[in-house]
């Protein structure tokens, strides 16, 4: 076949392809290849025809042969790209990307429009594969090409915005290089915006700041972006809110942070981050109740802030709201999800605080939960304070051997750690080894004198050690006073101060004040509430007694606060108000239906009210519950006599006289 015939055969093949006669085209090409086996165009035409005949493997082989022959010729690369782009081609995305890369190289010095089209296709391909770094680098090349061609500022602005759009999902799994390219895109988009200040520019700035806040290492850039936005948009609270949340999350309370909180609240008094910031300020100033109030309010508006939940738990812990503190720790952990980087620190802090709080609740279930929380702390085994907490949890759960083992190990490995000596003290105290407990708590206080709990336990140790140490002003009393001074929310310290002033010093007035304070701090402390009421009565101060009882009964759920209902019922009984006495004594019995004395008092109240039948039932119930209550049996007989049930009355009187021969009221009856 002559050169002329080869050209004619190739022309026939091209015409056949144009007429969609692909098999015919293949014949012509094969004839050419018999003569010239390295004919580039023949291989390209075979690729084209085979692709149309749904013979992808043959097409791919033909194009690759052509490329082998002429690696820098466009036709075969274009054909291969078209083949890989067909919907029936799977698992070729990597190969297609390589083809696009080569096409970019070939178009670069020539057809700029085609270069841009291929570039767009390559970016889409990388985006589908979530290869964000390749997306960013390729799109930047496109922008550079447009800049070299002298593109308008508005077109470049749209291209930078498109780059932001393409990379917006990449922040979840961010490698540093992609992140930097995304932030650069934001900066270029902001600098190329047409209307400044303007709505689009403002929204872009918000997105930029939100994006920056996801990069822990971009603190300086975040602060600068927020300040720059505040200059441009002075009435917008958004940059200040982001800055406030950044400071909250950083865990540092600098002057800069405090200034940020107060500026935000001046601009918007209802701003969640601003109120949270104020709450943290209160916490650092030891204004714990205000801190709880502000943090709770702020979190109602901005609830996905793990650091704020942690601070709320810390404030609740300080005022001994242990169950609420556990709930706040759980909220912090939920908001953190599966953390990494700085968030891991918050997770460890929240788990440790949760465990500390559960240990304070001091029951076996809470101890079990505390142990589980401590197990989740990363690198917990290397932290001796966490080990001491685990020891306390074991002690609360009744696992004495494990607690002892941890205590002994800590005292050997960390002899200067206050928590190690305190754990030893708690163990001795639980075993009533008061002399050893005293030594341990004194060692703990020597190393950490500002811990109220250590002074409280040393005071309790002296209280139970002996009458001598209980009465010694320099022992129990001094420690309870120190504990109360260091922690003004420690109700149990005030309760024991009340015990000291009442039982040892005989100072009823001061004792009453301590019990009242203890009860105000912990309304579930019946011992302190009862003592405050009883001492108020003894001191002739019925107003104080009643105000305590009214407050408790006013808040009590049905079936709760028996002691308060009983005390107030007895007061009404003594002061001739039988109807009120009946209502209160019934409420007391709802809390404890088996209290025979309460039934007896209720019978008395009904009797005083003139409700004889109901009084009779109450006295009978009292004597059923406690057959030794002679007074109730006598009252029942007297009521049977009043109601004309003489035979029953006589039988009941005789029953009393069998037990108590000389019981005068029964003889009279």
UniProtKB/TrEMBL annotation:
Pfam family, any one: TPR_16
Coiled-coil spans in chain: 3-39
SUPFAM superfamilies the UniProt entry points to: TPR-like
Species for this entry: Myiagra hebetior
GO biological process: RNA catabolic process
This protein's name: TTC37 protein
Keywords: Coiled coil, Repeat, TPR repeat
UniProt cross-references to SMART domains, sorted A to Z: TPR
TPR repeats: 40-73, 562-595, 596-629
GO cellular component: Ski complex
Gene (UniProt): Ttc37
């Amino acid at each position: 076949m002559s050169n002329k015939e080869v050209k004619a055969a190739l022309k026939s093949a091209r015409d056949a392809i144009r007429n969609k006669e692909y098999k015919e085209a293949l014949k012509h090409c094969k004839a050419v290849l018999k003569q010239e086996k390295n004919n580039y165009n023949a291989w390209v035409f075979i690729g084209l025809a085979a692709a149309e005949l749904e013979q992808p493997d043959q097409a791919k082989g033909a194009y690759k042969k052509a490329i082998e022959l002429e690696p820098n010729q466009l036709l075969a690369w274009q054909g291969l790209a078209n083949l890989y782009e067909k919907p029936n081609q799977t698992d070729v995305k990597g190969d297609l990307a390589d083809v696009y890369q080569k096409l970019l190289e070939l178009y670069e010095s020539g057809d700029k429009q085609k270069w841009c089209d291929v570039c767009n296709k390559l970016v889409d391909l990388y985006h589908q594969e979530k290869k964000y770094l390749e997306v960013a680098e390729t799109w930047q090349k496109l922008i550079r090409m447009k800049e070299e061609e002298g593109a308008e500022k508005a077109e470049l602005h749209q291209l930078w915005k498109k780059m932001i759009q393409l990379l917006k999902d990449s922040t979840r799994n961010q490698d540093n290089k992609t992140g930097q390219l995304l932030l650069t895109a934001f900066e270029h988009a902001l600098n190329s915006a047409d209307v400044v200040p303007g709505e689009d520019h403002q929204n872009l700035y918000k997105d930029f700041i939100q994006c920056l806040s996801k990069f822990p290492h971009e603190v300086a850039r975040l602060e600068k972006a927020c300040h720059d936005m505040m200059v441009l948009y002075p009435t917008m609270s958004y940059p200040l809110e982001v800055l406030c949340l950044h400071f909250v999350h950083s865990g540092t309370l600098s002057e800069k942070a405090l200034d940020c909180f107060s500026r935000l609240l001046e601009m918007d008094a209802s701003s969640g981050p601003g109120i949270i910031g104020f709450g943290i300020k209160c916490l650092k100033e030891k204004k714990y109740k205000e801190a709880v109030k502000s943090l709770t309010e702020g979190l109602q508006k901005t609830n996905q802030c793990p650091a704020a939940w942690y601070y709320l738990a810390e404030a609740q812990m300080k005022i001994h709201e242990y169950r609420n503190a556990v709930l706040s720790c759980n909220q912090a952990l939920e908001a953190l999800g599966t953390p990494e980087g700085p968030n891991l620190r918050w997770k460890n802090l929240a788990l440790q605080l949760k465990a500390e709080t559960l240990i304070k609740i001091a029951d076996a279930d809470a101890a079990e939960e505390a142990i589980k929380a401590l197990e989740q702390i990363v690198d917990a085994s290397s932290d001796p304070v966490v080990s001491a907490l685990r020891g306390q949890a074991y002690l609360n759960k009744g696992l004495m051997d494990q607690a002892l083992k941890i205590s002994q190990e800590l005292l050997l490995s960390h002899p200067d750690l206050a928590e190690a000596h305190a754990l030893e003290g708690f163990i001795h105290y639980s075993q009533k080894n008061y002399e050893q407990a005293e030594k341990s708590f004194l060692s703990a206080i020597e190393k950490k004198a500002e811990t109220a709990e250590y002074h409280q336990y040393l005071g309790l140790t002296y209280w139970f050690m002996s009458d001598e140490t209980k009465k010694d002003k320099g022992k129990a009393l001094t420690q309870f006073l120190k504990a109360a001074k260091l922690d003004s929310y420690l109700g149990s310290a005030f309760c024991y101060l009340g015990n000291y002033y009442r039982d040892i010093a005989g100072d009823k007035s001061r004792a009453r004040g301590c019990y009242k304070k203890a009860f105000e701090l912990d309304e579930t402390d019946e011992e302190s509430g009862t003592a405050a009421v009883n001492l108020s009565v003894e001191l002739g101060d019925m107003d104080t007694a009643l105000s305590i009882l009214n407050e408790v009964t006013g808040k009590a759920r049905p079936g709760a606060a028996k002691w308060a209902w009983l005390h107030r019922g007895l007061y009404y009984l003594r002061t001739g108000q039988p109807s009120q006495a009946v209502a209160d004594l019934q409420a007391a019995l709802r809390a404890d239906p088996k209290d025979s004395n309460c039934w007896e008092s209720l019978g008395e109240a009904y009797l005083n009210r003139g409700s004889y039948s109901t009084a009779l039932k109450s006295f009978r119930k009292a004597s059923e519950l406690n057959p030794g209550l002679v007074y109730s049996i006598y009252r029942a007989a007297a009521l049977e006599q009043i109601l004309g049930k003489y035979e029953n009355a006589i039988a009941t009187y005789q029953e009393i006289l069998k037990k108590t021969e000389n019981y005068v009221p029964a003889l009279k009856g």
